[in-house]
Amino acid sequence: MSVSRRGVVKGGAAGALSIALAGSLDTIFQTSASAAGKGEAYGYGPLVPDPKGVLDLPEGFSYKTLSAEGDVISGSVRVPGKHDGTATFTGSRKDTVRLVRNHEQTASGVKPVADARLVYDPAAFGGTTTLEVDREANLVKQEISLAGTATNCAGGVTPWGTWLTCEETEGFGAQTKSHGWVFEVDPTGKRTQPVPITGMGRFAHEAVAINPKTLEAYLTEDAGGPFGLFYRFRPRAHRGQYGAYLEGGRLEAMYSRDLPDLSLAQTPGEEFRVKWVKVPDPSAATTSIRKQFEDGKVTRSQKLEGAWWGRGKAYFVASYSSKEDGAAADHAGQVWTYDPKTDRIRLELIFKPGGRFDGPDNITVSPYGGGVILAEDGDGEQYLVGTTRKGEPFAFGRNAFNDSEFTGVTFSPDGRTLYANRQTPGLTFAITGPWNQVRA
């Protein structure tokens, strides 16, 4: 039975119980309006309504806001909008942290203004900003660190301390250069060049997770007609340093004989052996990469989204799947891991339609409780969703301002602060609190 995200199930409670590992009906359908009077079975307890109407968090947690869309950086240079994928790095001093943040703008919005050496395509409105904050998460400075890219959605951190920013597009009408690439951004600003990493392919990129031992990169694609793929890039370079991926390599797509569509997996703990198939033309000069394969020769998924490397595995997310859209089965979100030691993928978490949470997008591995933090991009209310090491999900934060998605979840290097963005109007949160008190 198809039900609305948090609506009442007609004809009984069976649909509500379909959410995997989510606890009781009270937990599944509990919204922030009722959270003050009920406890959470897992996590950090009920959400406390924010008197400012911005961000609801559990008791003991607090937030600061920084770098809002439209803020003046210097002169006529302003902070672009549509804040998205973000990562943190050690700052210029031991007590500061740098954030590199994407902006998912394509051909409109507050245009990033930067020196010509940082601009790829003057017609594009995407790019990245780099922020530096002190130990208390106060903004010290910020600057445009890449401009002229388009639809910068998510990305990934390299083992050598740079940010890979991914374009979620294959082009737009006003472009002066091709789009659909990955670019590397140096948080220090010293080495960044607006040069696409062509070996990683041209497609609607979402995110990338990198194995620090092999430098292999795992990439997600958010596309339809047909659905997107999960990729592996095996670089020629053997040393990790800025520009290493520009040396090229081999791009491959994932295939499991037992799983042509990721949505067919419905039970957490299911595992599937996979192999990797070489991409004929990574540049997609005449044909989109996902169209270079026949159905049944690769494993597809609707709405592949966030990716993060942690605990020796690549975590990746499928935001939702709908049979009405041509998928093999319905779900409201999946979290997978890929283990390079066994060449297996494992379904870690699934949300079934009708439950409390839906539409997981950006992901980060939490240093507390053994779980992850997910940024929702679903229907209605938007949550930051935590999970325990056993896969039980809980509400960690709620967008009390509007229904815009959360993006860019990432912890500071010391684990004291969780950074997250509200995409529209663009705003970055710095969240602190009693992290060690998670109910795992």
TrEMBL record:
Protein name: Alkaline phosphatase PhoX
InterPro entries cross-referenced by the UniProt entry: PhoX (IPR008557), TAT_signal (IPR006311)
Ranges in a coiled coil: none
Pfam families documented for this protein: PhoX
Species this protein is from: Actinomadura rugatobispora
